[in-house]
Amino acid sequence: xxxxxxxxxxxxxxxxxxxxxxxxxxxxxxxxxxxxxxxxxxxxxxxxxxxxxxxxxxxxxxxxxxxxxxxxxxxxxxxxxxxxxxxxxxxxxxxxxxxxxxxxxxxxxxxxxxxxxxxxxxxxxxxxxxxxxxxxxxxxxxxxxxxxxxxxxxxxxxxxxxxxxxxxxxxxxxxxxxxxxxxxxxxxxxxxxxxxxxxxxxxxxxxxxxxxxxxxxxxxxxxxxxxxxxxxxxxxxxxxxxxxxxxxxxxxxxxxxxxxxxxxxxxxxxx
Length: 271
Fold this sequence. Notes:
Blueprint: H1 12-29, H2 34-46, H3 49-53, H4 55-66, H5 76-93, H6 95-140, H7 145-152, H8 160-172, H9 177-182, H10 184-188, H11 193-204, H12 209-267
Helix pairs in contact: 1-4, 1-5, 1-6, 5-6, 6-7, 6-12, 7-8, 11-12
């Protein structure tokens, strides 16, 4: 009788580690509240360095990172399946496999977040000039700044639509309009700083808003034109690889090689 392949035993340590892996991923999937995130951060700050060196400290740090919204809402179903698969792998194949799978999942999440953040920055830079132009037109028509932001929200693309709508909602709820506008630097990036500065200066100091918006729009158009020129200059460099390794070999194969074969045949060098 031949024994089948042995399955690694999973003792109490393996089960505990599997439970920790599952708990960390569930924490990322279901988007813990701000109070829970603050509690985790306080716990990590109170943890001494020696505790962070062991496996428990590493897992706690990963759990805190995942709890900061590492998984986007549209990816929660996929992340839930991945969490279940990693937990099963940790129980069935041992804690080492589960930990490696967790690290791979964390790396994939980090890469996805960086890609989305880069795409968001590109979207902001692409649409910012038109948003400033539209805001300047509405303000120039005599609308107050808060009303102007509410008016242009349905007519601007994402991510401006959601962020400007959030500013209008916070201002309507009683939050300082200046503080709400200043949050746009965090949500939309430093590219909107000229607009934020113009709006806050108009609200606090009473400076004219329309000329400041016009200057910000001119600068945004100039930056976008410079980026387009830089992208156009990169095109020949990007085309170099397919030209050298794809187009030129195919050209030689279809033109030079038949000529050489015909010449060799005419000279009688080939029997």
